[in-house]
């Protein structure tokens, strides 16, 4: 798009544009996503200059209708939110939990122990997002950041066939980026802008968002540095989702706290850094052959639980339609904060 090129902004000449491009900032959208502090760090430009540059870029895109203006009425926000895209999960139960589907312009975090269905949920969304809007999709592609080597194209094929879609076409619309360490994972996300535009990406998946950070930064002594880098990653996810109007889904690992004698000892990794950044937070847990999904945190969804299953079509409705929704339980959501996360070194690993 010519209207978001760096040289379309007043004050950005060939030298500045080349310096930004060499640093991985290729257009005005990238400029806003990365922010003035990071732009200053990666280009060596003065912070005051990058602040003016980013503010001018935001104003330019707001005047062009690409981004919302700084001051708008609540009525305008409500009207705009009615047009936000939603990706159906393919199930009535989970769509009820999400109030229609996984939203664009938001970061949805799904956490739970191993085998609870997080990756299956992500694989299902990879197929559903490619459907037409009438069928619950957004007719867009997928960028899948795989940090645990759990992406399986065979699973995509089976889910696509179960939904009556062409498996080859579905696979062609999924871009997979294998992250080998936390720095590489962040780099992939920083360079994602061009792929999001070129491939019409409507779903960005990070599976898992915290696994590599957790494995590389061990012990209490590295907790501060880990949280800072993790903070950068999840905020970048959220900004990309909002700026490029796509849905961001991040899976999270958990730990078992040994000091909890009553209730569920399972707690998500990442502490307040992840908890505050996520727009929606959902807890998956196993219950025999079925799974339970709980809406832990949301700006407007009620706190409730639904039962779902896993089958050939990915995540599916439970066999008994009367068992789709269960009542909210007292003390449903275990607290998550940085102090608790510091106990990760002494906690029992509950898997990923």
Please tag this protein with its features:
14 helices; about 40% helix; disordered C terminus; globular; alpha/beta; three-stranded antiparallel sheet; DNA polymerase, domain 1; 2 domains; Rossmann fold; about 350 residues; ten-stranded mixed sheet
Topology of helices and strands:
Layout lengths: L13 H9 L5 H16 L3 H17 L10 H8 L4 E2 L4 H6 L4 E2 L2 E6 L6 H11 L12 E6 L6 H10 L4 H6 L1 E5 L3 H9 L1 H7 L2 E7 L3 H6 L6 H21 L3 E6 L1 E3 L9 E3 L2 H7 L2 E8 L2 E8 L7 E7 L2 E3 L8 E2 L11 H4 L6 E2 L3
Parallel strand pairs: 3-7, 3-10, 4-5, 4-6, 6-7
Antiparallel strand pairs: 1-2, 8-9, 8-15, 10-11, 11-12, 12-13, 12-14
Q: How is this structure best described in words?
A:
By secondary structure, the protein is α/β, with parallel strands linked by helices. The protein has two domains: 2-63, DNA polymerase, domain 1 (Orthogonal Bundle); 85-349, P-loop containing nucleotide triphosphate hydrolases (Rossmann fold). 39% of the residues lie in helices and 20% in strands. It contains 14 helices and 15 strands. Strands 3, 4, 5, 6, 7, 10, 11, 12, 13 and 14 form a ten-stranded mixed sheet that branches. Strand 12 and strand 13 (314-316) form a beta hairpin. It is globular.
Summarize it.
The chain has 352 residues and is an alpha/beta fold. It folds into two domains: 2-63, DNA polymerase, domain 1, CATH 1.10.150; 85-349, Rossmann fold (3-Layer(aba) Sandwich), CATH 3.40.50.
The name of the CATH topology of the largest domain is Rossmann fold
Do you know the CATH architecture of the largest domain?
3-Layer(aba) Sandwich
Q: Main beta sheet, described?
A: 10 strands, mixed
Number of domains: 2
Class of the largest domain, according to the CATH hierarchy? Alpha Beta
Structural class, judged by helices and strands?
alpha/beta
Cα Rg: 21 Å
Number of strands: 15
What is the general shape?
Answer: globular
Helix content: 25-40%
Instruction: Catalogue the unreliable spans.
Output: 327-352
> Oligomer, anyone?
single chain
Task: Please trace the helix and strand order, writing H or E for each element.
Answer: HHHHEHEEHEHHEHHEHHEEEHEEEEEHE
Taking all residues together, what is the mean pLDDT?
86
Q: What is the count of DSSP helices, taking H or I runs of 4+ residues?
A: 14
Strand content: 15-25%
Amino- and carboxy-terminal Cα gap: 40 Å
CATH homologous superfamily descriptor of the largest domain:
P-loop containing nucleotide triphosphate hydrolases
């Amino acid at each position: 798009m010519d209207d978001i090129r760096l040289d379309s902004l007043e004050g950005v000449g060939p030298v500045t544009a080349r310096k930004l491009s060499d640093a991985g900032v290729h257009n005005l959208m990238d400029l806003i996503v990365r922010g003035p502090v990071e732009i200053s760090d990666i280009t060596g430009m003065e912070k005051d200059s990058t602040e003016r540059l980013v503010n001018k870029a935001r104003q330019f895109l707001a005047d062009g209708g690409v981004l919302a203006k700084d001051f708008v009425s609540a009525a305008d926000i409500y009207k705009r939110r009615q047009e936000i895209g939603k990706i159906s999960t393919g199930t009535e139960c989970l769509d009820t939990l999400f109030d229609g589907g996984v939203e664009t312009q938001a970061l949805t975090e799904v956490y739970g122990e191993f085998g609870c269905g997080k990756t299956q949920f992500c694989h299902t969304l990879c197929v559903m997002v490619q459907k037409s809007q009438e069928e619950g999709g957004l007719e867009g592609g997928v960028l899948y950041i795989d940090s645990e080597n759990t992406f399986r194209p065979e699973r995509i094929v089976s889910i696509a066939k179960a939904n009556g879609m062409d498996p080859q076409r579905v696979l062609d619309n999924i871009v997979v980026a294998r992250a080998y360490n936390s720095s590489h994972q962040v780099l992939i996300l920083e360079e994602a802008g061009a792929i999001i535009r070129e491939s019409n990406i409507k779903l960005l998946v990070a599976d898992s968002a915290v696994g590599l950070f957790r494995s590389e930064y061990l012990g209490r002594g590295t907790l501060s540095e880990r949280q800072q880098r993790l903070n950068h990653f999840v905020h970048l996810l959220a900004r990309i989702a909002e700026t490029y109007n796509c849905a961001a889904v991040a899976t999270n690992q958990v730990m078992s706290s040994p000091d909890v004698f009553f209730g569920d000892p399972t707690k998500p990794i990442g502490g307040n850094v992840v908890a505050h950044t996520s727009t929606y937070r959902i807890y998956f847990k196993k219950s025999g052959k079925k799974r339970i999904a709980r809406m832990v945190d949301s700006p407007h969804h009620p706190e409730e639980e639904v039962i779902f299953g896993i089958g050939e079509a990915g995540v599916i409705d439970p066999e008994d339609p009367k068992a789709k929704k269960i009542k909210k339980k007292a003390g449903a959501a275990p607290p998550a904060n940085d102090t608790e996360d510091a106990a990760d070194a002494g906690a029992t690993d509950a898997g990923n």
